[in-house]
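Tokens in:
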């Protein structure tokens, strides 16, 4: 937040960082699902590489699950960043967007998103937790 005289203004940095995280993660999810569909059709047609089918899906399936998990974290962090809530989750999502998108452009945009969210920490709402227990209530 910038303070100009008595007027407090918000910067667009967390929104830009959050949108970048969401875009990068969405591109990774779409790409991963398309490749998965192509590989599955190759499996059905019997046109997989020379090594065994089990080894192929074990090797590349684990990588795809990791990419999809990091993309889900990046999307949730991007949503929290655009709402200016839960700064640690927003920052974790921006960091995940660096690693979920392969290629130099994805890494650069992920770093930009991380820096924008890290710099704008003071703009996020404070002391608002995802799960809170009110005094006098016990959790089940």
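Residues out:
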């Amino acid at each position: 937040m910038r303070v100009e005289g008595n007027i407090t203004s918000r910067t667009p940095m967390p929104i830009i960082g959050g949108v970048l995280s969401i875009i990068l993660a969405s591109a990774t999810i779409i790409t991963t699902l398309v490749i998965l569909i192509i590989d599955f059709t190759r499996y059905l047609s019997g046109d997989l590489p020379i090594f065994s089918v089990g080894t192929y899906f074990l090797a590349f399936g684990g990588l795809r699950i990791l990419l999809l998990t990091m993309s889900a974290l990046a999307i949730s962090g991007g949503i929290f960043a655009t709402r200016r809530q839960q700064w640690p989750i927003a920052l974790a999502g921006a960091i995940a967007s660096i690693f979920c998108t392969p290629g130099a452009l994805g890494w650069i945009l992920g770093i930009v998103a991380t820096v924008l969210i890290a710099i704008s920490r003071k703009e996020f709402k404070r002391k608002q937790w995802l799960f809170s227990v009110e005094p006098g209530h016990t959790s089940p």
